[in-house]
Design a protein that fits this description.
3 helices
């Protein structure tokens, strides 16, 4: 893929970094991290621990908040 398409950016969808060692093992193949955190699930100390394990030379490019609904989901609507 890299040779044929010459992409500028490649995104790898990896499993949860604290649950599997795949992310740490794959570390030599990426330049930065776009972290997906679960609303109401991911704790700040978990984010810090992932970044500690990845090392200081891996930049955190951004954070995506997933499942950002209210506790019962009633806070989320499109207003229809």
């Amino acid at each position: 893929m890299m040779e044929e398409m010459s992409p500028d950016i490649v995104l790898y969808d990896m499993p949860p970094a604290l649950a599997f060692d795949d992310v740490i093992a794959f570390r030599p193949h990426f330049d930065g991290v776009l972290m997906v955190v679960g609303g109401g699930e991911t704790r700040p100390e978990d984010v810090r621990e992932v970044m500690r394990r990845l090392g200081e030379d891996v930049p955190l490019l951004g954070v995506v908040l997933n499942q950002a609904e209210g506790e019962d989901g009633s806070d989320y609507s499109y207003g229809y």
